[in-house]
Amino acid sequence: MKGKVFWLLCGLLVMSLMAFSIGCQQPAAPAPEAPAEAPAPAEPAEPAPPAAPSMEFLSIVTGGTGGVYFPYGGGMSTVINRNVPYLRATAEVTGASVENVRMITEGSAELALIMNDVAFQAFNGEGRFDGDPQPIRTVFQMYPHHYHVVVLDNSDVQTIDDIRGKRVSIGAPGSGTEFKTDLVLTSLGIDYEEFTPFRLPFAETGDDLRDGRIDVGIWDVAAPTSSVMEITATRDIRLISFSDAEIDTITSANPFYSRFEMAPGTYPGQDEPVVNPSVWNSVVAHKDYPEEYIYDITKAMFENIDHLIAIHHFARFTTPENAVEHSVAPFHPGAIRYLEEIGMDIPAHLIPPEM
User: Whole-model pTM?
Assistant: First the structure.
């Protein structure tokens, strides 16, 4: 019995000594971690390519449906849409030249088709724009307009003086025809109070002349024009020719006009040449419209002019040479850039003030 107690006490003593020894040992320090490798230097970033211009809408303001401006502007929109991928152009019917200048100035249109008498006075702040120069710049020249004074064949109107006492359509409000009629008749001493003026667009002028609601219709358009041709389908017409003295009086007072002789046969039944005052037509933009856009538009138009000629044969006059010779307001810098690239010399008076 005593032996068993002795060995039990010995075992307890040994276990106590082992526990004490373990409790006194220090915990082992963790093994040092391997130093992290330094990150490799980053490769220099490639410069981002320039962003392509986002798609933008472009409004081309033209004129009435019975003239050449609207189909010409429609042809322009097709050329631009096919060749300037970041622009989406549409042609709009308007009252034409004077209204179009206002739309450019107000920013409600990007390109406008206007007559050069309007362009000259708008840029210089004269006449209808007295004291208020408009911020327009020329893009290119289109073609010359011819002043049509049209009556039915049985009319007693034989000269421009004979419109006194008659019912006369002088063109739509704000149109180049109305603008030019005011200058032409004022030059010749014919006052609006001496006849009854009607301010009608081209198509209505043709309808009302054919049906006898007016006695005289006036158009300032390229010839032949559809709304005059449509009258000849049912009625015989005559065009009033201006005398040389009348042309001299008109061009002396308005140097942007010139003498033009409409060839016989331009309209059915017109067997003799018709002399009238002519004026060229401009495409214009706001002076602040982006240079790159106008450069691309000008390039597209001149390099695809066959499309416009297929729409109206007068587009054959749309050439770089005519742009330089017949412009009356300074070019847009984008147009100058293209014209100089193809070797054209730009006269000093067509360089805009901002250049």
Answer: 0.76
